[in-house]
Amino acid sequence: MIDEVCAFVASKCQLVGRELSLDGQAALSAGADMIVVLGGDGTLLAVSRSLGDRQLPLVGLNFGKLGFLAEFTVEQFKSTFDAVLADGRTISERMILDVSVSRGKEPVFHSLAVNDCVIQAGAPFRVIELAVRIGGMHLTSIEGDGLIICTPVGSTAHNLSAGGPIMQGGVMAIALTPLCAHSLTHRPMVVEHEAKIEIIVEHANPGTMAIVDGQLGCALRDGDCITTVRYGANMLLVRNPASPKWHGLVTKLHWGQPPTYD
What amino acid positions are annotated as catalytic residues? Predict the structure, then answer.
């Protein structure tokens, strides 16, 4: 399949390289204008993170299960390729978060997050306590299983399963969704995209972690501070011009569809 895709691309434009890797730095070094990513949504997330502040348009060919971000089949990729190259409106900008963890004054973890940063209780799975600070102001303390901080891209991932708000991909905002909060008053909320969000771990379990995009993790201790801010560059996602804007939400996540009866 890789050979087929590469042969097709080479017949249409200059193919500057191919890599069996999640690291897009080789494409940057080769002077690529666009990257075709073969895999699932997780593959796209990893490649985007690897590009840092030099984001290139990413075309996702879905070899995974859902394909919410990786919108193209190989056949659709071929049939729409000329339109993708000719029409810059197929490129959608999606915000990225910059996530860091500090222990005292020492940094212990740093990563970009295209989907989310999830602070989650681990074994022995007792309630953890998190203080939430936005723009330097203490907002609340949450007791429960953790907290999701997500981008609009990530709003249809773990956030959706936890009952958080669905945000359109191009919206510039950040959602905070408590995980099984031991309170009736803690509900998901959406804040402005420029907000600086700090989460202080007031009480952790031995297995408590900060997890980025479901792929990278950092063990947390009492007193650790997780800081998220908007990153200076946006992910550049190439949309399938043959699919309506809400196609994935309706056809793949079946949003708003009534129950079926036998």
Answer: 41
